[in-house]
């Protein structure tokens, strides 16, 4: 009897143990493949980043330690005054922007170059700017450009994708055809869609976008969308949202389809409005799907390469295109490896933050 009692006391624990063993049996092969595929190349990249190895060269690499990381991560903050015009006021460029003095000679001699001049209230006065300089200003600027592109594009894609998903999830005639049509932009290869938009955004009246905006009276003259610095990133964001919002909608649609319809029926019986249903039922139950969609799109946006490479070439860099530039054009394999390691750290950090704050592991 005592033996039978012990057996009846442990069914739940045995079930938990069996489920844990089954989970690990499924996870271990995938983890081993991940270690073989990812860990060894990552180790080689880290080792190479500590040398001055040249790409496609017979040069014997030398150990340089953390020199590359110091160059990439060193940033200075200085105050600079505006350049004076003949009347004593701040000189301005043709576009109306204030012209600022360059960094002191000793800073230039140390290798610092200005990344941005920010006229912010933190500095001494309206005629003074906060100068952000770096040993590798192109890298620092590429980080900022990539982060702005990622945050803006993913946020817009989430809102637009959720709207599309809710639309195609509702009951209406031709819903199947609508679902197929919405995936067309996502199915087009990025290089092809980038070339297509490059033609549409031509900086003459022959460009479709310029012509449409001029005919509607929104602009008076053609805009150089892909060569004007202030318009480059918004143009890239617009193209990426057009292409990738359907993918976001597809992921969210999968989440919508697993929400039980009985919940909505009960809410309607209780007199809940559509807005109340969305806030109390749809959004909470869609949270795991939103988290997965955000992780996928954020990691993809942080690695953006082909869109920037096609649209901007060498005029504007993401972290990936700058890594390519350093490796292929400059042939600095050691320096490019250090950039690759920092990109990995950046992406890994975003993944950890998403999992932690969106509660993916608890959903």
Task: Please describe what this structure looks like.
By secondary structure, the protein is mainly α. The protein folds into two domains: 76-134, no CATH class; 139-357, MetI-like (MetI-like fold), CATH 1.10.3720. A three-stranded antiparallel sheet has the order 1-3-2. It is globular and about 75 Å long. The chain is built from 15 helices and three strands.
Give the SSE layout.
Layout: H1 2-9, H2 11-48, H3 67-73, E1 75-81, H4 105-109, E2 113-118, E3 128-134, H5 137-169, H6 175-182, H7 184-187, H8 190-200, H9 208-215, H10 229-257, H11 261-269, H12 274-302, H13 306-312, H14 319-329, H15 333-357
Antiparallel strand pairs: 1-3, 2-3
Helix pairs in contact: 2-15, 5-10, 5-12, 8-13, 10-12, 12-15, 14-15
Main sheet record: 3 strands, antiparallel
Strand composition percent: 5-15%
CATH fold name of the largest domain, please?
MetI-like fold
Provide mean pLDDT, rounded.
Answer: 86
SSE string, helices as H and strands as E:
HHHEHEEHHHHHHHHHHH
Structural class: mainly alpha
How would you summarize what this structure contains?
With 363 residues, the protein is mostly helical.
